[in-house]
Specification:
Structural class: mainly alpha
Number of strands: 0
Largest sheet: none
Mean pLDDT: 85
Helix content: 55-70%
Number of helices: 15
Low-confidence stretches: 1-15, 266-281
Order of helices and strands: HHHHHHHHHHHHHHH
Radius of gyration: 30 Å
Strand content: under 5%
Shape: elongated
């Protein structure tokens, strides 16, 4: 005999959604068609919830990476066998600085898809875990040698960062002296490459050369992927915070002078009132 209440486990009511609260304006239809089609292998209600969490994660990943990670994690728990879901979880974890989780998700989605373009993120996650040697192992692997140009450039940048981590600053400079550095194209990766090269030059004391590359990076970086403009100001000795403090100090000095002047005037008035000659008059 089943215990009393045993039939409650067969309720047709769907389980209560887990994960962070979903914004009401998200429908799930915002996803690209190929991702929506991939989610069709899930049950109807579950597919809808996963889709909404994926949209929320994508919306937040550059604004609130931790919240984006929580949405991606909720989607992963419900649709972990879908490669697009694992990819979203990997990217959100990486952006949020959860490098161990990011690396695990990246390995999974690479295994599911056979796509080696995840290798740069995997290498940078190794750096985030304090393992620059492993990052360099990935950068010099035969799989990395077969990457297309955008992914290859990203891997070059990661590898240079790993060399910085190891104190190999001169080697980082040399590693970035590749033909792509002199590109005349409007490739989206050029700003990041130029910025990385400028950063490497600064690390070995070649500030004048670094400035030229920071100028190029700042002009090319129309999407704000780097802080090239800010670094350029720092290199030129422009620090707005100090200027602001100086202005505030000048205003304080002016106020102090005014107050001192008022006190002198008041003293003169008192002295005039106490003058005995005026009392005799």
């Amino acid at each position: 005999m089943r215990p009393a209440g045993g039939d409650r486990g067969r309720s047709s009511v769907p389980p209560r959604p887990t994960g962070p609260r979903l914004p009401e304006d998200i429908t799930g239809k915002e996803l690209p068609g190929e991702v929506r089609r991939a989610l069709q292998s899930l049950t109807g209600d579950n597919a809808d919830i996963v889709a909404k969490h994926l949209v929320a994660s994508a919306r937040l990943v550059d604004v609130d990476a931790e919240e984006a990670w929580q949405h991606a994690l909720a989607a992963q728990k419900r649709g972990g066998r879908i490669a697009a879901v694992r990819e979203a979880a990997a990217i959100a974890a990486y952006k949020a600085g959860h490098f161990r989780e990011a690396l695990a998700e990246l390995r999974t989605v690479r295994r599911m898809t056979g796509d080696d373009s995840y290798l740069p993120l995997m290498a940078d996650s190794e750096r985030g875990l304090g393992r620059p040697e492993r990052a360099l192992d990935l950068a010099t692997s035969k799989e990395a040698a077969g990457l297309d140009t955008p992914a290859k450039v990203e891997m070059l940048i990661v590898a240079a960062g790993a060399r910085h981590d190891l104190g190999q600053h001169e080697a980082a400079v040399v590693s970035l002296q590749v033909p792509q550095l002199r590109t005349n194209s409007r490739a989206p990766w050029r700003a990041r490459l130029w910025y990385a090269y400028a950063d490497a030059l600064i690390s070995v004391g070649r500030a004048a050369e670094a400035r030229e590359w920071l100028v190029k990076a700042a002009e090319a970086d129309t999407d704000g992927e780097t802080d090239a403009a800010e670094r350029l100001d720092e290199l030129d000795g422009i620090v707005f915070e100090e200027d602001w403090d100086d202005e505030a100090g000048d205003e304080a000095d002016d106020e102090a002078d005014d107050e001192a002047g008022d006190e002198v005037d008041a003293s003169d008035d008192v002295a005039a009132d106490d003058d005995p000659a005026e009392d005799e008059d």
